[in-house]
Design a protein that fits this description.
The structure holds two protein chains of two kinds. Chain A is an alpha+beta fold. Chain A folds into two domains: 30 residues; 216 residues, Alpha-Beta Plaits, CATH 3.30.70.20. In chain A, the strands form five sheets. In chain A, strands 10-2-12-11 form a four-stranded mixed sheet. In chain A, a hairpin with a 5-residue loop joins β5 and β6. The termini of chain A are far apart. The longest helix of chain B is centred in the middle third of the chain and has 32 residues. In chain B, 50% of the residues are buried. At the A-B interface, α6, α7 and β7 of A face α1, α7 and α8 of B.
């Protein structure tokens, strides 16, 4: 080895170049941080939701509630309710009943605080020609007839399929999206870097990106929110259906908004681990299928024809 | 202390030059500022200023990133003949390829950053302080290998250049392992980038095992295409001697790479159009369009046509050795691969989207300006690096020239110290 090298790399005070550059970088970061407000600093340095300890979590929730109060002039509760034991959520959708009215789409937007301008929708209803059967390539999400259902069509609503082997989770470079113990795939909106790998990876086109600042008129905000679900989002992060995590995780859980609003009862929801649940009943008594089964994503969203 | 003086001397070299040099740097600087301005708009308003939307979520930025990873990886086209085969004519210029790799890596990192929705959260990607999903997510592999490759090349180049500057023989026990290590790294940066797309079952256009081999084949012709033009410019504008043999050899290697690339393209086209399964719709969109949606069809045929013509020009020794056809070939190869990666990979892969919707993407002005700014910054970095390294290669900038008055550029035809012989 050429031992002459080391001393050459040293600066006047014995400071190595690496120390010098590292020091400059650290100084620059501290300078930027020093120029922020304490709130901005806290937001910038916030850890992943999963890693927040009790006191840290409390501080974060308090800050989020303050932020939202300022923005929407109304108190917004941010819950952190965890998964219940022995629960794995599953969804059923009866294609023979769905009339394509899109009430679910709009109830979802209201419930989950999606941006209204431009409006972000988590459910996309596809119009299928009866002549072709289920055929995604020829489906139309922008159908707009004077009246539904149309005689020559049926409808296939698609939202996040809450896969057991979610392709989106595997590709996230920072583990901002992950599967909860009750099977819901969630996104930590304060950790997402907006790289959109998950959107490229999702076979069901279920994820939405906040291309601009989301806009919700203050009088339309749903104040009952969950950290991993419908709390107001930021620009530059990804969002999607969470089975209304803010409703279904409550002790006396409520159905997701789309299930509640459906005028024909096409939407079913329940605990896959409970043999007596409605969803298990459907799986036993009807014939269910999943979308794109060949990809082995194992959705917990089951389609069926009840009649 | 001497290293600081080296940096001082280098800065002196960079600020001085002829009128053409100033004009070139000024042009690049203007473009960098225009690009920065466009990016400022994007930071203010969000990625809505691009034409990307939920259907086509990755487009021009990531396409450019992918192309430039190939350019960075292509340094290996010089490293292998230079170090493994110890082939003199290329050995003298291998450092120019490594400098190109450094500039390309920096451009790659910029393109990934400008594509991020939340660039302020970049630190989430850092190991230890953040939460890098390694080894699960391929993008985190890319972050690791790209930065490692950049560091590796920076170390090799800085050490070699500084040794030559000091008039010392570089220590081969130090450089040799690094150089050897850089070969699999060059292959891996492009393989890993290909795997980002390749691993996505949602996108049948990418989910084909030919993707990574095809990435390498196209990289090994597009990267050297830039280099061949740079070599000829350097030969004209400086006293650097670059043998024709080196240029012709690189062109010959490019011909093989292009041939393999075209073969792979043919294999893909055959599979999709012969089987005519639903998945072929993406390839159909690229080459023929779907109904009225034909925005990128002309590019598909341009890329294919340019590729074939360039392949023929480089395959035939007479046209390979003719300066006009050689440079025409370089430009055609560059254009062919740039279209193939910048447009032909991302956009058809996402059109139609996972539920069959067709959103026809073309880049917005902001995207084009940001990309132009990024390329200009990359070229500026490459220019500055060359401005320092070439005089060192020529023996015009050495420690002995840095007397108390730090004289630069007085060395006559001194033999290049160390650089050319580096590695053995």
């Amino acid at each position: 080895m050429n031992t002459e090298q080391t001393p050459q790399e040293q600066g006047p005070a014995g400071v190595t170049r690496r120390d010098f550059i590292g020091g400059c970088a650290a100084a620059a970061v501290s300078a930027v941080l020093a120029s922020c407000t304490p709130e901005q600093r806290e937001a910038f340095l916030q850890k992943r939701f999963k890693e927040l300890t009790g006191a840290e979590l409390e501080a974060v929730i308090a800050r989020l509630e303050r932020e939202n109060k300022e923005k929407f002039k109304t108190g917004i509760k941010v819950k952190t309710t965890g998964a219940q034991e022995g629960v794995l959520f599953g969804y059923g959708l009866d294609i023979s009943r769905c009339i394509g009215c899109r009430r679910c789409v709009h109830a979802c937007v209201k419930e989950n605080n999606q941006s209204r301008d431009p409006e972000i929708q988590w459910i996309r209803v596809l119009r299928m020609d009866k002549e072709r059967g289920i055929d995604l390539t020829h489906s139309d999400p922008y159908y707009n007839p004077p009246e539904v259902p149309e005689p020559d069509a049926f409808y296939l609503p698609v939202a996040c399929q809450q896969c057991e082997q979610p392709a989106c989770v595997a590709v996230c470079p920072v583990q901002a999206t992950y599967k909860e113990p009750d099977g819901i795939v969630v996104i930590d909106y304060n950790w997402c870097i907006g790289c959109r790998c998950c959107m490229s990876a999702c076979p069901y086109q279920a994820r939405r990106f906040n291309w601009r600042d989301p806009v919700i008129p203050p009088d339309q905000v749903n104040p009952d929110t969950h950290y991993l679900g419908n709390r107001p989002r930021y620009r530059g992060v990804v969002e999607k259906c969470t089975f209304c995590i803010q409703r279904v995780r409550e002790e006396h859980g409520r159905y997701p908004a789309c299930v509640e609003i459906c005028p024909v009862g096409a939407r079913k929801f329940g605990n896959l681990l409970d043999g007596e649940s409605e969803i298990r009943h459907i799986m036993r008594e009807k014939r269910v299928f999943i979308l794109k089964e060949e990809l082995n994503t194992q959705p917990k969203f089951f389609y069926f024809y009840a009649t | 202390m001497t290293f600081l003086r080296f940096l001082g001397g280098a800065a002196g070299l960079v600020v001085r030059g002829n009128r053409l040099y100033y004009a070139w740097c000024a042009l690049l600087l203007v473009l960098v500022f225009v690009g920065a301005g466009a990016y400022a708009t994007q930071l203010r308003d969000g990625l809505v200023v691009t034409k990307m939307r939920d259907s086509v979520t990755w487009a021009f930025y990531i396409g450019n990133f992918t192309f430039l990873v190939g350019v960075a990886a292509a340094a290996v086209m010089l490293v292998i003949p230079a170090y493994l085969y110890d082939w003199g004519p290329i050995k003298e210029i291998v450092i120019l390829g490594e400098l190109l790799a450094i500039s390309a890596c920096i451009m790659c990192l910029i393109f990934v950053t400008v594509d991020m929705g939340r660039p302020d959260r970049f630190w989430h990607l850092m190991p230890i302080v953040g939460k890098l999903n390694f080894p699960g997510a391929l993008l985190s592999w890319d972050v690791v290998v790209l930065n490692a490759y950049l560091l590796l090349n920076l170390t090799i180049v800085t050490y070699m250049v500084y040794s030559a500057f000091m008039g010392r023989e570089p220590n081969h026990h130090f450089t040799w392992p690094l150089v050897i290590f850089s070969i699999p790294f060059a292959i891996s940066i492009h393989t890993v980038t290909a795997f980002i797309y390749n691993g996505m079952v949602a996108r049948p256009y990418w989910n084909a095992s030919i993707l990574a081999p095809k990435f390498l084949a196209s990289a090994f012709c597009s990267g050297p295409a830039v280099l061949l033009i740079v070599l000829q410019i350097l030969r004209k504008m400086t006293r650097l001697k670059i043998q024709d043999a080196a240029i012709w050899k690189i062109a010959e290697l490019m011909a093989y790479a292009m041939g393999i690339n075209l073969f792979f393209t043919g294999a893909e086209i055959f599979k999709d159009f012969y089987s005519h399964a639903h998945h072929a719709i993406h390839t159909q969109y690229f080459y023929f369009g779907i109904g009225a949606h034909r925005a990128i069809v002309p590019y598909a045929w341009m890329s294919l046509f340019f590729g074939v013509v360039a392949f023929l020009l480089f395959m035939i020794p007479a046209t390979r050795k003719n300066v006009v056809t050689l440079n025409a070939g370089c430009i055609l190869i560059y254009a062919s691969c740039y279209i193939e990666k910048g447009i032909g990979l991302l956009i058809p892969g996402m059109t139609p989207d996972g539920l069959g919707e067709i959103y026809e993407y073309t880049p917005s002005t902001t995207e084009v300006l940001v990309a132009a700014g990024t390329f200009s910054l990359g070229f500026l970095i490459y220019t500055i690096l060359l401005k320092v390294v070439v005089p060192v290669m020529l023996g015009e900038f050495r420690v002995t020239d840095l007397g108390d008055k730090a004289v630069v550029g007085t060395g006559p035809e001194a033999p290049p110290a160390g650089l050319a012989r580096a590695g053995h």
